[in-house]
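Consider a concrete sample entry:
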Amino acid sequence: MPFKKENFLKKVSVGYLTGFLSFALIFVISVLGGGFKIQSIWTSNNLPILLLFFIGFLIQGTTEEIICRGYIQGRISQKMGIYWGIIISTIFFILAHIGNNGISLAGVGGLLIFSVLTSLLRFYTGDLWLCSTLHAAWNFAEGPIFGTAVSGNSGMGLVFKSTSIPNHPLLNGNQFGIEASLISILIQIMLIIVIIYLGQKHSRLSIFKKAA
């Protein structure tokens, strides 16, 4: 599995901050637009569980990226080229979540965009540090921190409890969660554009060295 030692601390830091702050931005826009009603539920008793979630999502996010972007994308890209690598790993990623609660066409669209985003990070950096930590931070912010559904799985809130306001799917994604919202999809498209720009124009940056 491609976990390169060089610059890994920088990649881990950039990946985690990007994932967390991106989701925080999406959440704030949704709340300001009336997509969620939020309530603070934090107590010091929640700290041990929050730490367990932090570790758990690091394992979960990394595992999904190893399977989808590491093994599937890596092997298919070697045999058929990067485009097919991204397409087939994305299809597998969507199918792995297709049975989740509240899945919808918008939910599939959100999964597709997220998979393309992490696939491009894998391609342009040549390893899995950035995409794995972004994935982990996104889910950690989505569930335990802001209390929204993580791909249809709800009830994880430890800092905030967020209740979806009915009839606002473009803001909150309904039961599947905010990743099925139009806001999330648009911001992820913006991130994809930035990744492509940095990958193509600034490949000499330490975190953007294109895979061979």
Q: What stands out?
A: The chain has a mean pLDDT of 91. Strands lie at 36-40, 160-164.
